Amino acid sequence: MSCWDNVMLGISLVGQLSSDKGYVGKMVVGKLSVIGKKREIDWKSTLEFISNRINFTSRQCNIQDTKDRSYRIKNLLKDLPVYETLYKRETNMIKDDKCRRCKKNEIESWEHIWVCEDNEKSLEDIAQETIYIFEETLIKKERKIDVEILKKFNNDFVRIILEPSKVLLGKNRLWEVLRGVYNNNLNDLTRIKEEKSLIKELWNFLYNEFKNRIWFQRCKEIARLEKIDSIDKRDLKRKRQNEESTEEGGYKKDKNTKTNKNIEKIKKIKLKEKINLATRTKLIGAISEGFNIRNNWDTIQIGR
């Protein structure tokens, strides 16, 4: 793995990740890109984090590890079960894709959940507060040396993550943290191993703060609202059924029309699958051979 500018993604690492419902194959092919000479993203650290090799070795696997990897992979792909995604999947009981929390008639997309008006704090506020929370954690654990390291780099850390992102246009680098992508500028802050390690620990801590204070709180509130509407988890595991009036005198869809629509739908799905397969095969081959794949980690949508 000598050159990340050419994305020499090790087959072993891809294999470790690909066990999760094929998500990583999709991730590697459809989302990762190399910023070439800019060296903007530290893909080695990013993939270690996404595969949860920070907390577990490659031979370890338990429920928590599986949950962590599942969230990180889906989050990187912007494939969390938000209402936009559930509605597109025709999930049972999901009648539209609008946000139920803010009730602003806005689509609850992956982006929306992080900036929804119902969130207790903004991303920027959470980032600022995280520095102090992390410092208190270090103090409680009597990690005095690490406290001094944190004080040395906390301002630069905040400065870097609030700067405009060069890979996610129109957003700052906080959105890179949200996706689980480690920016290489953080590595340039120091050459000392212990200091690099603490900066990564702070970055990891911030990632979890976003998850705990926004995503988890969103899930709790949605569960509460769905309970009011008598929506059970078991309901959400089924496909939405086509509505047909069963009342007397009600209109019933013409079976032939419905059959024709289904045939056309199946044809479109099969065509899309063939295109995705061809594109995926081509890109995987390019990655395996070490060819440079530029500027596609947040633009190509494969298998959506």
Label this structure with key terms.
304 residues, mainly alpha, 53% helix, disordered N terminus
Secondary structure blueprint with pairings:
Blueprint: H1 11-17, H2 23-30, H3 43-50, H4 63-76, H5 83-88, H6 110-115, H7 123-140, H8 144-162, H9 174-179, H10 193-228, H11 255-288
Report Rg.
22 Å
Question: How would you sum up the major sheet?
Answer: none
Distance between the termini: 30 Å
Domain count: 2
Q: In which range does the helix fraction lie?
A: 40-55%
Number of strands: 0
The secondary-structure element order is: HHHHHHHHHHH
How many H/I helices? 11
Overall form = globular
The overall average pLDDT, rounded, is 77
Question: What percent of residues are in strands?
Answer: under 5%
Which regions have little confidence, pLDDT < 50, spanning 5+ residues?
1-37, 243-253, 283-304
Strand-pairing-aware structural class: mainly alpha
Short description:
The protein has 304 residues and is mainly α.
Structure description:
The protein has 304 residues and is mainly α. It has two domains: 1-77 and 288-304, no CATH class; 80-239, no CATH class. Helix content is 53%, strand content 0%. The chain has eleven helices and no strands. It is globular.
